[in-house]
Amino acid sequence: MLIFRSLKFKLTVAIIVFGTALMGPVIGLINRTVSELILSEAIEKGLVIARGIAAASEDPLLINDDLALFSSLKGAIENRGVVYAMIVDKKNIVRGHNNVNFSRQPYIDPGGEIFKVHKDYVIKAYWDKSEKLYDITVPISSLSATDKIGTVHVVLSEKIVREPVDRASRNITYLTFLGLFLGGGGAYILATVMVKPIKLLVSGVRAIGEGKFHQRIDIRRNDEIGELTSAYNDMAKGLEEREFIRKTLRKFVDKDIADELLKNPDKVKLGGERKKVTVLFADIRGFTPMSENMPPEEVVALLNKHYSSILPIIDRYGGVLDKFIGDAVMVTFGTPFTQDDDALRALKAGIMIRDIRRGLNEKLVIEGKEPIHMGIGINTGYVVAGNIGSEERMEYTVLGDVVNVAARIEGLSKEEEIIITEDTYKEVMDSIIISQEKEKFALKGKSWPVTVYRVVGIKEA
What we know:
Helix content: 40-55%
Number of helices: 11
Largest sheet: 9 strands, mixed
Oligomer: single chain
Strand content: 15-25%
């Protein structure tokens, strides 16, 4: 029948057989270990009792106080597992017994085998009918006598060991049968769970063969099937990315850079080239205290709305968005291709961003909201432009002192004010209007003051 050849049936039977074969030795090992442990504890307890009796029996034994000897034995049999206890003098006469009928009778050695010998005690094991007993013998010594004056015998029954072991064996047996039952059911369920992803993988591979690269298999497992599923999803994702890379790359990379990388894949490697660019930094003033009083969702919505008004202007004037830095943006003009009017286009973009921001602030004031002010800094010079990072993750950016200075002078600008360096001013001096003569500021990390200009507008505008 098909059921006997199925993976579910085979796995179920295999787990039951394996569990049965394994539990036999395990139960035996547990029983032996538990027996040894309980017996050891019982003997230690018997030794403590026998030594206590021996310590209390020295004087009564010397003065023939049988009543005191009986009293010292009476509490011994109240301990679980103690069958009887007695005191035997050096003449081998029972001087004290928990059963008074045995007192003043000759002591008869029950025989048996030596279980354990120590310098101050001897333990024998022997059988009494169907019960195994352990005779713990401890000497009674006297400070006034050179030899021992008697011995204490405390006899323990093996029942103290057998009863908990039998109880543990029964419990383990019940648990074993329950485990086999649950294991069989679990095996059946496991086989069902294993077969299901295999069928999904077969279906997914067929879909990939038909060109449906969006196909994914949603299985999260930490085993070989999970690894196979993950590899399949990675493959499908890679094929889908290659299929749609031309449509998606421009959403994350400037269109000129994207076209250049697609046209020349060899340029997708670490390294850069020295070129002249103009760097623009635009930053919101007082954004940190503003965001502290706003929920995170509103902060994100505010930034998205702010950037949505800036990015079209950057594209319009041919700028490349290098990165978002929280509430600031860094834009370069001159990458990946340098043009003669890079500085002028950067300045025009900055002026339009300023004017758009002023218009938006007027609307915010009418709506009863706080206006959003920003400052703009622009610098021109030579940088290293290229892919920075590692072979696994890289970013096209520009590096150099020009970038640092642009960021620093942006911090000098006031609300909706544009500040440019002297290097940028030399590029656009014939086309701009400045508010005052040049100013000099000492910037952190610079050995000499930096000359800047505050721009009002463009002459041709």
